[in-house]
Structures
1.
Amino acid sequence: MGLLFHIGRYFAFLGSALRRPQKGRVFIQSTLVELEAIGVQSIGIVALLSLFMGAVIAIQTAHQVSGWIPAYTIGFTVRQTMILEFAPTIIPVILSGKVGSNIASQIGTMQVTEQIDALEVMGVRSISYLVLPKLVAALFIFPFLVVISMVLGIGAGAWVCNTADLSSFADFKYGIQIDFRAFDVTYALIKTCVFALIIASVSAYHGFYTSGGAREVGRSSTKAVVYSVVIVMIANLVITQLLLT
Amino acid sequence: MIRVKGVSKSFGDKEVLHGIHADFEAGQVNFIIGRSGSGKSVLTKCMVGLLEVDSGTVHYGQEDFTAMGQKERESIRLRIGMLFQGGALFDSMTVLENVEFPLRMFSEMSSEERRQRAMECLQRVELEGAEHRFPAEVSGGMQKRVALARAIAGRPKYLFCDEPNSGLDPQTAIVIDNLIRELTLEYGTTTVVISHDMNSVIEIGDNIHFLHNGSVAWRGDRKGILDSGVQELDTFVYASDLMRDIRKQLQGR
């Protein structure tokens, strides 16, 4: 019953969030602020993780294939891993820890300090005002972050292959070009958009229904991350099954 | 005016408000007083629509607020200003942005006009010079004044103040009380103050409702409150040694 209650309330919450903004100009300004908070402030961590993961995947693959499988396999594996799974799934999972907890704690703090009551009394539709800019910003910026991750990861793989003499640049380049299907990128971006919506909305939901004080805000923040990650994983399975089989 | 008729509200098995009747007059400072847990905050939240009543009605002028849908209520809410107990200032905005916020959302003013109106309100609460600070950078008393400035920015017809003096020193509390009184007279608002601060009640209360166990146990003015003859109210009013001494002195004259 508890689960059904939360599912029902989540979709009602989402319905309220997706209502037309009361003031277009305020909505655009809020969305720009969220783009900075969700996107620009996440570029550093995304770049760092992608560079190291791309390099590590290249080294691990070289270690596995050395001697009996063509060297271009390293480039191929780095490309496929970055495009299909690391960038579109692991990066959003990491962002759910950074962005999701931030959204939940921000809205949760507003709830327990009566800031949301203040919005309601003024006549502001608080859910739409607070959540819609975050949804739009996440939906818009996550694909960019994921593309940055793909490029940096593959670039780091090429760099490490070259500097550690794991394979020639020509082999690596051949590997990232062989059997390339543009649909893989489309699939990655589709699931990135779905994950962006899940992370922003689930985190906002947990923040919005916080009651109590600082301890409950912390709990909501933790719940937001845990539930976002679990739902992202389930969605990942469903989308992969639907799009790749 | 605001008229509350037969409002009841329960949470689970616990009935917090039992058929409350109360009239809050325009141009007056109306108080809802009572001990902690007497239902003051619940009644206020029912009046502004943060909680739904189980039965009864709340009328703003001739309009039945409780019968309205969310969209219709927005038209009433645009006429409401509220000072929350903790200030409820938006901590990501500066003092000036906080005061400007209702105007930015609901008026067609230009940014210059909004700024001018917000500065007028800040001057009214004697906070000019603090406009670029964030709420966390100003004192509790200043936060209350910013919240008051925000509440009056849209020239509300109805002003709610929830525990305006809680956590403030006596001198700052008097400043806030006087501001509420002056603003009520200046704007002709129907002001509803929720408090258990007897100093405020005696200082500025025109129309006082005493809540006890979820019912209005007494209503009257600040003169009548000192000698109400209602035991629960006497216990509330004369809770401190100081008030009991004052009572003895009054009786001795």
2.
Amino acid sequence: MRGVFPRIPSGCAISGMMSRKGRRMDGEAIINSIALMHDRSNGLGGGFAAYGIYPQYKDHYAFHMMYDSEASKKTTKEYLEKYFFIDQSEPLPVRKTPGITNPPILWRYFLKLREEVLVNANEIIQEDDFIVSIVMHINQKIDGAFVASSGKNMGAFKGVGYPEDIGRFYRLEDYEAYIWTSHGRFPTNTPGWWGGAHPFTLLDCSVVHNGEISSYGINKRYLEMFGYKCTLQTDTEVVAYLIDLMSRRHKLPFNLILTALAAPFWKTVDKMDPKQREVLEAIRMVYGSALMNGPFSIIVANSKCMIGFNDRIKLRPMVAAEKDDVLYMASEESAIRVICDSPDRVWAVDAGQPLIGVVEEGAI
Amino acid sequence: MSTYLPPEFIHRIDKDRCRRCKRCILNCGFNALSFQDGIVADHSKCVACHRCATYCPEMAITIEKNPLAYKGNALWTSDVQKNIQKQAETGGILLTGMGNDKPYPIYWDNLLIDACQVTNPSIDPLREPMELRTYLGRKPEGLEFNTDANGEVSLKTQLEPQVKLDVPIIFAPMSFGSISLNAQKALAKAAEQSGILMNTGEGGLHKDLAPYGKNIIVQVASGRFGVDSKYLNSGVIVEIKVGQGAKPGIGGHLPGEKVSAEISETRMVPLGSDCISPAPHHDIYSIEDLNQLIFAIKEATNYEKPVSVKIAAVHNVAAIASGIVRAGADIIYLDGFRGGTGAAPNVIRDNVGIPIELALAAVDDRLRQEGIRNRASLICAGGIRNSGDIAKAIALGADAVAIGTSALIALGCHVCQKCYTGNCSWGIATQRPEMVRRLDPEVGAERLANLIHAWAAELKEILGALGINSIESLRGSRERLRAVGLNQNVLDILGVKHAGR
């Protein structure tokens, strides 16, 4: 399953849609949106993240797994059982789809953490941190096993193929979500592998990314200082980990995280009022190694919001639109118009300026 | 005792071109030229500093290596023989000036920088902003913020003092005494113009430099010359000098004949007395002593200035650096074995220390492994020759570089390595008033500022080619370097892949 190549730079298509009212929409629209941008992918990777899809298991960790073999599945299950009650264990429903070949074993578990686990741990550890350590352990230590997603009431569906084929393969029309994001991949120098497709997820945070992070080298080394290991041969991984570091571990508000990842230029900061300038100067001084440089457009989602943002000089495209309660973001305007023929508003997202869509309080 | 040493250089004057203006005689700091019905050169005194040739209006002067001096021998080279002869004649330690000139590997020249093609766009620095701004000082691991009732965010974390550099370059420490006051003035003025820093070295701060305090690092070395509380508070950074790349483990000696009234006042020592810098600080015999000195300085400066510790790159430099960070240093200044000096024993300069490239990579790695890289800025020094070296140093992990020899070359230095004689014809490494006078601080500052401007522009070009628009995205990004012709051990230490990988 896992390739042996170093990091893979890639071009891509991304699309996302979110109902601010938490209204759940089936996967048909998002497949059609990403399908329109077929030419932005090359058949070596596609994927989707969906939020709100498991209301019957909304308090369980939904682990979407990829396995090379029954052996890796067995090892992983034994490992998970040490820490979790496995309330459901089943194959992910798929259909035979032309263009999708050699899928790994795709499996999902709905897990509840055993209460004594955190109490008995050697050190004081938060539940979130513990789940992350489990995911890291499986991805790094269990040969042939890969966690595609691990959040609650959400899931990632991804693989090697064109994204619309991946969507059909995973039967996404059978799922209903209030946030969908999707990705079509154009890796430029090596074949894709299933785990390396987007979205990348950690807990309930997912990232789809079009671009190449030219600062990958330092972003990776910076993350390593905090114990993250970048093993997935793609720079999108660092986006997910940087966000995880700053949000979960450093507890920074999301709008400030984005000013670290796509920092405003000094000439802008220098003109700000002193209080705001102090904040942004400090972020740049302390989180300079987290600045993502190079061309990118990214959609980050979690159970509460969907955020689109570009690099500081917008070297990759991103368009947004609104219609009633739904917010759309995509690499191309056409990918929005194909599923929303008369949007209330369409605009180009500004360079380095995040577009944050939040699900209304109490809607979910 | 008569000398067996033949002259090193042959100084030739084209008699047809020479108009006997005697300018060359006036310019020579080494008394190599005289007038006897025409210009006559004493070859044995010529050091090839090129001052006379540069200022000869008729371009009548050429200086060549003495071609017939020695029979070729790979083992008993002319240098080896000359040194033995000198010591047989004097019985003393051989002195030299400037950095190690032996043909050790220069790893910068085995490193190549990446650039963008197709999958990510390069950026045109003439059209897009390119940011080189760098802050030196201790950074916290993370930040905390307060949000008030209106949702307005303010900084909760109290940051340690930070010093801004517009370009990640500083002028290396060179004391008043080792270099002239005019040279220091040129450095200070250029630092101010370029938004960077100069460093007093260990010779105190002359009163004429006080107005440049915002661009000055004041140094505290083992001799404590010129150190009082006013001095500590007159710059933006205080640096404790433990070691120097050219002479790790060795102190310094400014002979009394160079201690003029100005130097005496600045160094706070009696006129004409020798200034001896002991090899160690006699209050630092271990890391915990360093910790005490760091905090004594922080107390004396009200915790308003970062404290830097300068060390020479020696074998165990990574562990030493880690200790220094844990002892409270906010900046580590790493000086490689090619770092310059006004005077050092030849044997030390040529045989002690390790290359800065390896030391820098090892220190950056070690601090990252220990999760404390954020606690100190790293300054890399010792043979930085151009903006390519700077980009490579930053990619290996440096926050900024320091340049000494490069800066002196900008001021006219021709690397004749005779700094220790005090006869510098360029008015740099001398205290002779008639020599010092020829270095105009304004002109010198302009030359230095031009150099910094040029290198800044080149760094921006490199960043643009790399497809990034801020220096932080290159800092420590060894992925953007590849090596040619290095063995696996060196690659592992540098953390760099071989070209083709």
